[in-house]
Amino acid sequence: MVQGTASSAGKSFLVAGLCRLFLQEGLQVAPFKAQNMSNNAAVTAEGLEIGRAQAVQAQAARLAPHVDMNPVLLKPEADHRSQVIVNGRPFARLAAAQYQDAKAQIWGEVTAALDRLRSEFDLVVVEGAGSPAEINLKARDISNMKVALYARAPVLITGDIDRGGVFAHLYGTYHLLDQEERALVRGFIINRFRGDPSLLEPGLTDIEALTTVPVVGVVPWIHNHGLPEEDGVALERRTAPVIRPEAIDIAVVKLPRIANFDDFDPLAAEQDVCLRYVESPNELEGADVVVLPGTKATIDDLGWLRERGFGPAIERARLRGAVVVGVCGGLQMLGTRILDPLGIESSAGAAEGLGLLDLVTEFHRSKVTRQTQARVRALPGVLRDAGETDVSGYEIHAGVTSVSPQAIAVTGADGRALGAVDASGQVFGCYLHGLFANDGFRRGLLAGVAASRGKRYQPSDVPDADASFDRVADVLRSSLDLPKIFRLIGREFSW
Length: 495
Fold this sequence. Notes:
31% helix; Rossmann fold; four-stranded parallel β-sheet; 2 domains; alpha/beta; 25 strands; single chain
């Protein structure tokens, strides 16, 4: 089990890398995370929701994502309320205190999922959540040491040295654990180190003396490792790119409840694209493309857009020739009206959309969660070079959207309208997450933007995900004490 001294210490990244490394060593390995809190979700082949990070870890292990890998997913809707997904289906919308009470009921689902994985695979690599040393939450924790104790799993605790204070974090985490929990901690990993590891030697020796736990690895900072980030916390760490005049400038509005922002990683990987996340309307100045991403709270985030003044700013960008794109919740916002009479996502009941696309959305109790094949129509405007393209992705939405026939731009294999475009071909929206990972569509769209904006665009070879996992595994091979780690799982490591 990999636990962390804090959220975003690199647990998801390490588990993905270890899954690939163990797979390379001939083990049938699967990832597991009891409870994930993130609006970045994925859909299994069975149409069930799990955390995006566990889907990525499954990919690292060359497995199809399965709901047993993440039996509990919390999708924040407000500061103190989340939609609780259990075994891939909505369970309830609960305030934080209510969820603490529900954990006793949910724990049986967690252990059942873990037991099924353990019976099927040689090895399960478990990821913790946040920190195991949150003493205000430990009594009802179902993500960290309770899982380790249930499985009798050896624990590696990782700390992020890039944030500073890593030795204090490791020491404090260890000493806030109960004696039975400390007995399971078998190693520390220092993550995201920049510089000469030999400079850490005195600290490595001292932390082992203070805790009796060895440091089993110092993992370097890996620039552009190619793996998606787990949740929105990662956006806080991203530095804005240098905007090159000749490159396509894409501004993604960083909504408060932004979801599945890894949709845009393939765009950011293009050499002739500068992709940035913005929180102020003034930051849309000069953008060639304005993107409204997915969100867990469409009406509330639409209200946030209006309060910030994004509505007029998006219209000004459109009038000066910028392309406007919406994904999932962003598509819904671009329409004329959003109806939520049952209070599925908001107590507001209804809201006027931005009015840039001819469509109306109404929220229903049933939720669409499925992997989807679709086709993009060849239409004038930005879709001219991207049309007549088969695409794949996945849908996660409670909204049902009615699109006027002349505005339909994307259709599913079953004939459903999944995307729309305005009469000018300058405003486009689609329900498909993962749309930009389709090379033909992405390159055609960017070529259309470049042509309309007088920018340069030469298609790039976006890094292959499988090669990225191999690269991360190679880094872990050179930075972890693998003989010691393999002994923890009862195996000998052969070089």
